[in-house]
Amino acid sequence: MRKFFLRLGVNAAVIFIAAAVLPGIHVRDESGLTYLLLGILFGVLNATVKPLLKLLTCPLILLTLGLFILVINGVILLLVSALSGGALVVNGLGTAILGGVVMSLANIILEVLLGLRTEED
Predict the structure, then answer these.
(1) Which domain holds residue 76?
(2) Is 11 in contact with 110 (CB distance < 8 Å)?
(3) pLDDT tens-digit map of 55-99
């Protein structure tokens, strides 16, 4: 249960970081609760939709040597934006792809610092 809440906090933090770093990503109500709800939505979509997209686009992923995963991350961020009811605004696919890259890097750093990336995962 502890890891779940830590990962939820990491998701909220990476959305905050992406919104702070990239001018094309905005969070309308910058309260902690909004970031937590966006983190939950992001986590649910990452756990459900992302594996399906990876499976469906496997030939493209192989053809681009894995770079198409960046596009999938951008699509997930756009889905979060679309499903958030206006709480998260992302200005286009290019910004979403860049946001996905920033969020992935921040996610790796935070998970390593918090001890969430282990050999068993």
Answers:
(1) 2-108
(2) no
(3) 999 999 999 999 999 999 999 999 999 999 989 999 999 999 999
Does some domain include residue 118? no
Is-above-0.90 flag for pTM? no
Reported in sequence order, the residue ranges of the chain that DSSP labels E, i.e. its strands, are: 25-27, 88-90
Please tell me the total count of domains within the chain: 1
Q: Which pairs with CB-CB distance under 8 Å and at least 24 residues apart come from 82-87?
A: 83/41, 83/45, 84/37, 84/38, 84/41, 86/28, 87/27, 87/28, 87/29, 87/34, 87/37, 87/38
Please state, in angstroms and rounded to a whole number, the distance separating the CA atoms of residues 72 and 68: 7
